[in-house]
């Protein structure tokens, strides 16, 4: 092959755009879903924009992305104001009860609910704001110190019961982050366990089809998560590039 002219070399060395990355991620989601015999429409892509500027979110929005995830309320609020209308925001990171006031009306969904105290704080604020907030219970059944999440089955049942007693909160499902050191087999087993847990909670608590979400899968493992039933994948790096 002939060496590329300098101008072409310049073009080919350019980093792929956010729109390119999004298209590639959407293709991979569709492929993983089809391989698992699932409809790609069952999987919501959440573009995790933490540490990235509002301009990056605006580019993704212009490329058709609708749902964005942030892990810190404080950082997100400025972006929510700065981005053109049309984005829906999910909180995917740990939330302290004393910050609950800033969530309703800004975020549609919280993936990181992990205590009855936080549920009650969100209930109070959502009711005051006159909105309903979707919540997913974050699991941490291995008790990893570095993350939030419910650590045992008794805590999980008690928290779900609390949410069911909160009329301004809608329980939507479960969220998990597997140990990053897991092999593919271990990661998939973990995802499958969480799916089983969603199904058994649904039966035990008599929950309807709205309790369906499995928020699991990030840039490096979303294909495995989709194979194991993920309905929401939270993808940052593969869309926006590496974080500092
Ligand atoms: C940062 C983050 C993600 C996205 O991780 P990537 O590896 O960049 O795709 C997903 N979920 C949570 C909770 C995060 O904090």
Characterization of this structure:
- By secondary structure, the protein is of the alpha/beta class.
- It has a single domain (38-239), classed as Alpha-Beta Barrel (TIM Barrel).
- It contains nine helices and eight strands.
- The protein has helices spanning 6-13, 18-35, 54-62, 73-82, 116-129, 153-164, 184-205, 222-227, 237-240, and strands at 44-48, 67-70, 88-91, 109-113, 133-138, 169-175, 213-215, 232-235.
- An eight-stranded parallel β-sheet has the order 7-6-5-4-3-2-1-8.
- Helix 5 runs parallel beside helix 6.
- The longest helix has 22 residues, at 184-205.
- It is globular, with a radius of gyration of 19 Å.
- It starts with 5 loop residues before the first helix and ends with a helix.
- Residues 1-11 have low confidence and may be disordered.
- Residues 48, 50, 71, 92-93, 177, 218-219, 234-238 line the site of pyridoxal-5'-phosphate.
Low-confidence stretches: 1-11
Strand order of the main beta sheet, please?
Answer: 7-6-5-4-3-2-1-8
Mean pLDDT: 94
Provide the succession of SSEs: HHEHEHEEHEHEHEHEH
- The helicity comes to 40-55%
Question: Radius of gyration over alpha carbons?
Answer: 19 Å
CATH homologous superfamily (4th level) name = Alanine racemase
Number of strands: 8
Bound small molecules, by name, code or SMILES, are: pyridoxal-5'-phosphate
Task: Tally the structural domains.
Answer: 1
Number of helices: 9
What do we call the CATH topology?
A: TIM Barrel
- In whole angstroms, how far apart are the ends? 37 Å
Main β-sheet description: 8 strands, parallel
Task: Give the CA-based shape.
Answer: globular
Beta-strand percentage? Answer: 15-25%
Structural class: alpha/beta
CATH architecture: Alpha-Beta Barrel
Name of the level-1 CATH class: Alpha Beta
């Amino acid at each position: 092959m002939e060496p590329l002219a300098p101008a072409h070399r310049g073009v080919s060395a350019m980093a792929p755009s956010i729109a390119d990355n999004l298209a590639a991620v959407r293709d991979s989601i569709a492929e993983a879903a089809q391989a698992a015999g699932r409809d790609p429409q069952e999987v919501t892509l959440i573009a995790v924009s933490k540490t990235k500027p509002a301009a990056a979110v605006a580019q993704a929005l212009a490329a058709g992305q609708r749902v964005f995830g942030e892990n810190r309320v404080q950082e997100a609020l400025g972006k929510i104001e700065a981005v053109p209308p049309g984005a829906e925001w999910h909180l995917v990171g740990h939330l302290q009860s004393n910050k609950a006031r800033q969530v309703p009306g800004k975020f549609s969904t919280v993936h990181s609910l992990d205590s009855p105290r936080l549920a009650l704080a969100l209930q109070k604020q959502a009711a005051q704001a006159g909105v309903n907030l979707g919540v997913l219970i974050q699991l941490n059944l291995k008790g990893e110190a570095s993350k939030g999440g419910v650590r045992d089955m008794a805590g999980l049942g008690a928290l779900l019961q609390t949410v069911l007693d909160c009329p301004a909160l809608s329980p939507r499902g479960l969220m998990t982050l597997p140990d990053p050191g897991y092999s593919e087999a271990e990661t998939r087993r973990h995802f499958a366990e969480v799916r089983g847990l969603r199904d058994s909670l649904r039966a035990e608590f008599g929950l309807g089809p709205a309790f369906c979400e499995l928020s699991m899968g990030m840039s490096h493992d979303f294909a495995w998560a989709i194979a194991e039933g993920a309905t929401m994948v939270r993808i940052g790096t593969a869309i926006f590039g590496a974080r500092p």
